[in-house]
Design goal:
Helix content is 40%, strand content 19%. The strands form 2 sheets. It has a 5-stranded parallel beta sheet with strand order 2-3-1-4-5, with helices on both faces. It has a 4-stranded parallel beta sheet with strand order 7-8-6-9, with helices on one face. The longest helix is centred in the C-terminal third of the chain and has 23 residues. By secondary structure, the protein is an alpha/beta fold. The N and C termini lie far apart (51 Å). It has 2 domains: 156 residues, P-loop containing nucleotide triphosphate hydrolases (Rossmann fold, 3-Layer(aba) Sandwich), CATH 3.40.50; 119 residues, no CATH class.
Length: 289
């Protein structure tokens, strides 16, 4: 039976539990919010028996919304020790003044608020004090933004410190005559390059074919362009990572989406993969007649 990693995310409402769970999801964890405590052991057994790798790294949140069932929390942890599970509890906290400010800004209702907001916060501290005392890690998010929280969690769980692995890049070639992709973060137009569509023997080939590749790559304009373009993309990607972006779609377009955009997308994908980025390459319009 394969060992699974289980992180239980708990803490104060407003301290960043939801953001933490999203961060775990970005790191490839299977995540469940507000799992009933009575279901944890059965769920873990299902994950242990599964052959699907996505159930080998799990993050679940358990907090004050569990109510009276929190009394079973410690016994569940003890039971997990008898299974093939590496389990850690991460407790997120913040100062009362910060929690008050965050709730005031978002205008969300505190789960334990029955009178004033501060009374709800005080009540919650008592309810989840048992989890606080046995947590493996306490993370104070007072003054911490989402990007910094991601860095903290990456250190706590020992994910790859290669920052390039934080960002999943999708490179998409397309034809302008069929519309610009609606999901693109960056769109670049390569219609300034000489079009193979008007060259004898190349019209019915694509940017995947050697003859088309050779035709485009020898163009002086392409060499100058790609040298600048690849450096620009490489430089800005580091800034996207710094800002906490996990997914980025770069769309490269030409007239029909069969020649110039396809070849340029292939070249950019090769360039970024050599720099250890995770890259998915798609050609949207290459087979349209």
């Amino acid at each position: 039976m394969v060992m699974i990693k289980l992180y239980i995310i708990s803490g104060m409402s407003g301290a960043g539990k939801s953001q933490a769970l999203k961060i775990f999801e970005d790191f490839g964890f299977f995540c469940i919010d507000n799992m009933p405590i009575q279901m944890v052991l059965n769920f873990v057994d299902i994950c242990l028996e599964s052959s699907d790798d996505k159930y080998k790294n799990i993050a679940i949140s358990i907090d004050s919304r569990a109510g009276e069932t929190l009394t079973y929390f410690e016994s569940v942890l003890i039971a997990l020790k008898g299974k093939n599970v590496e389990c850690k509890v991460i407790f997120l906290d913040a100062s009362d003044s910060i929690l008050l400010r965050r709730y005031s800004e978002t205008r969300h209702r505190h789960p334990l608020e029955s009178g004033s907001l501060i009374e709800g916060i005080m009540r919650e501290r008592k309810v989840i004090d048992g989890i606080f005392k046995i947590a493996d890690e306490i993370v104070d998010t007072t003054g911490v933004n989402v990007i910094e929280l991601k860095e903290l969690i990456s250190v706590l769980i020992g994910v790859c410190q290669c920052r390039e692995q934080y960002l999943s890049i999708s490179i998409l070639s397309f034809g302008y005559k069929y519309g610009i992709p609606s999901n693109a973060d960056i769109v670049y137009d390569v219609r300034f390059l000489a079009n193979p569509n008007y060259v004898y023997g190349l019209k019915f080939k694509t940017g995947n074919d050697k003859a088309v590749k050779d035709y485009i790559e020898v163009q002086k304009e392409f060499k100058v362009f790609f040298s600048i373009f690849s450096k620009l993309i490489s430089t800005t990607l580091s800034f996207y990572i710094k800002e906490g972006k996990s997914y980025l779609t770069i769309a490269i377009g030409c007239t029909g989406g069969k020649h110039r955009s396809v070849f340029t997308a292939i070249k950019l994908a090769e360039f970024l993969r050599n720099k250890k980025y995770k890259v998915k390459l798609n050609h949207r319009d290459i087979f349209i007649l």
